[in-house]
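The methods section describes the discrete structure representation at length, but only in general terms. Each protein is reduced to its one-letter sequence and a matching series of backbone shape codes. I believe one specimen quoted in the main text would settle the matter. An entry of this sort, consisting of the sequence and the corresponding backbone structure tokens, reads as follows.
***
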Amino acid sequence: MIYRTRRTRINENIRSIVRETVLNIEDLIYPIFVVEGEGIKEEIPSLEGNFRYSVDKLDEIIKEIEELGIRGVLIFGVPKYKDEFGTSAYVEDGIVQKAVRRIKEISNLFVITDVCMCQYTSHGHCGIIKNEYVDNDSTLEYIAKIALSHAKAGADMVAPSDMMDGRVKAIRSLLDENGFKNVGIMSYSAKYASSFYGPFREAADSKPQFGDRRSYQMDYGNIREAMREIEYDIEEGADIVMVKPALSYLDVIRWTRDRFNHPIAAYNVSGEYAMVKAAAKMGYIDEEKIVFEILTSIKRAGADIIITYHALDVARRLKSR
């Protein structure tokens, strides 16, 4: 007997009918970089097709995002000044705070804000430095203050990306104490010390001025440790957990899906994006086809949400079908 599985692959109609994993616009979150100043819309050289916007230039991109049917954005701020304690990250008139208020004035998008210190500190690390070491417990107060300032500006959800132990609990406690019980937390729970972040560090001007981040971001050889990180974040109050990066960590996404019932986000990061763009420019790949294959693989692995710089292009294509 021959098992004729090809019968369900014989043409596009039947392939579509039996397709197990389908990419939807609603799966996508688009990252936006916001900078101080006026009249600024500048392309990020290492993230072709993505831009830094001043707050007064956000209206156009926000309108396009809404028209495409994308439901949410992730906001990153690039501040005007930096200091040892990243104070510009939590001031009322900070760049993220101003961007959130503007977006909320003009749209119904779900606004998520990145909560970290690396863009705002003079040393480029994600916390308070003591003896050239990022001090975990001293950092928690600052991370929570940043999250609270974003909530006060109108953020729907905050996304701590610092990888400090206990930061989800610290954020949840401070938000609740100040009446923001409905502001959610999407935690970068399994964030690896990856070489795929290079273009982002240019976009956000967040490169460490000394050392690296391996003492707080995860070792890329570990997966059981990631499960512990995710479990702790859920216990502390995370509403959504994230795996970052995505493409080289599909197994981590799968393990997470098999072990937890929480919504899972996966960040298709800057280096993954830039490699696709570079290969497409050389004519080595079909960009559209490979982007859909990559994002579908991330969803197939178990991600409910995909944060990606490809979001606009993918949404345009899906909308035109």
